[in-house]
Amino acid sequence: MIKNLFVPLTKDSFLDFSRGKSFELRRAERQWNEKQIFTYRTVTLSYGYSGRRATGVINKVVFGSLSKIFRVVPWQKIEPRAKNKKEAIKMNRKLLGRTSRCVAFEIIFCA
To answer: pTM higher than 0.90 for the full model?
Structure first.
């Protein structure tokens, strides 16, 4: 049996899920790879490592460059605090640093 994928988030990122965010974006490395990120896997989002929690299921997964991900996924679903797509990309490029491969995964929350 596969454990829930544990996803620690900053306060802003955690609260963004109540503001319309539905995709989490990470560098495609270490535990954020095809063997770990796949549809129907259960996810636990956490405010930090010991804060509030939310549970969901991965619905859609996109691997590729940051440019590809923002072509496939509406920017508002990744970065609802941004004013436009350009700003959303810039914000995430700053967070992720220089990387050639990312993963975006959509989370559907359990009731």
So the answer is: yes
